[in-house]
Amino acid sequence: MADEIESLEDISGVGPSKADALRDAGYESVEDVKAASQSELADVEGIGNALAARVKADVGDLEVSEDTEAEIEDDEPEAEDAEGEVETELQPRGLAEKTPSLSDEEERLLEQRRRVGKPQFNRQDYHKKKRTPTSWRKPRGQLSKQRRGVKGKGDKVQAGFRTPKSVRGKHPSGFEEVRVHNVDDLEGVDGDTEAVRIASAVGARKRERIEEHAEDAEIRVLNPTYVEVEVDSDE
User: Fold this and answer.
1) Pairing between β-strand 87-92 and β-strand 226-231 as defined by DSSP bridges
2) Which of 66-93 are b and which e, b meaning 16 or more Cβ less than 10 Å from the residue's Cβ?
3) What is d(CA 66, CA 144) in angstroms, rounded to the nearest whole number?
4) Per-residue confidence at 83, pLDDT binned at 50, 70, 90?
């Protein structure tokens, strides 16, 4: 698959607009992107950490060109084989697998919330007209079938669908979410019951510092950066 990537548009997740942004930032070819680090790519306008990790995963194992491969094929076969044995994978930075301290009742209610779920409350007749958004509005028409509760016309927002108070607003993992913008926001966060979500406007360098401090303080980050690491192929 790697030999099919000839231009920036061939990279997974990179369309014409993203490719133009990369070229404006000085990355003219696939080799330029391969030589850059994930944090450098994330600083490009419109790329971000998630797409940067996806790009690095796609171009990180690019092979040498056919002409170069033909020149070194007879001279250094062992070196090429050794390079092919290196395996890498994307792993989250920090404590991505940490679980909260919950009571038996909270665990039961969270499982109930996952099992029962909640309907998607859509505005009446949103599917009939393109100009009608899906955002919920209470049906008020005198002849409205949704207002009268006719089956198949869509559920209405009402108290019976509400989540139990003890788990209301919690992340599916059971943590209370705390939004952070810098390292100072980590002060006072209880790592046993709270997890942090880094704001989307935070840059790559500041994000890395937040993740490092969160790991030292044993605080889970709900939207961690995925980095490429080597894995042991002997397992």
Assistant:
1) antiparallel
2) eeeeeeeeeeeeeeeeeeeeeeeeeeeb
3) 68
4) low
Q: Is the pLDDT of residue 1 over 60?
A: no
Arithmetic mean of pLDDT, 48-70: 61
Which of residues 215 and 53 earns the better pLDDT score? 215
Enclosing H/E stretch for 176: strand 176-180
The three-state (H, E, C) secondary structure of 113-148, written as one string: HHHHCCCCCCCCCCCCCCCCCCCCCCCCCCCCHHHH
- Chain centre distance of CA 71: 41
Strand partners, 60: none
Contact partners, residue 192, CB within 8 Å, separation at least 6:
100, 101
Quote the mean pLDDT of the chain: 81
Q: In which residue are the tokens 């003890």 written?
A: 166
Tokens linked to 65: 């060109």
Q: Nearest Cα to 7, choosing from 72, 96, 22?
A: 22
Q: How large is the average pLDDT for residues 76-87?
A: 56
What whole-number distance in Å separates Cα of residue 44 and Cα of residue 206? Answer: 15
Per-residue pLDDT band at 63 (split at 50, 70, 90): very low
The torsion angles phi and psi of 231, rounded to 5 degrees, stand at -120, 155
Name the pTM for this structure.
Answer: 0.53
Rounded distance between C-alpha atoms, residue 211 and residue 142, angstroms: 54
Instruction: Count other C-beta atoms under 10 Å from residue 16's C-beta.
Output: 9
Question: What span, in angstroms and rounded, lies between the C-alpha atoms of 53 and 42?
Answer: 8
> Alpha-carbon torsion 217, 220, 221, 227, what sign?
positive
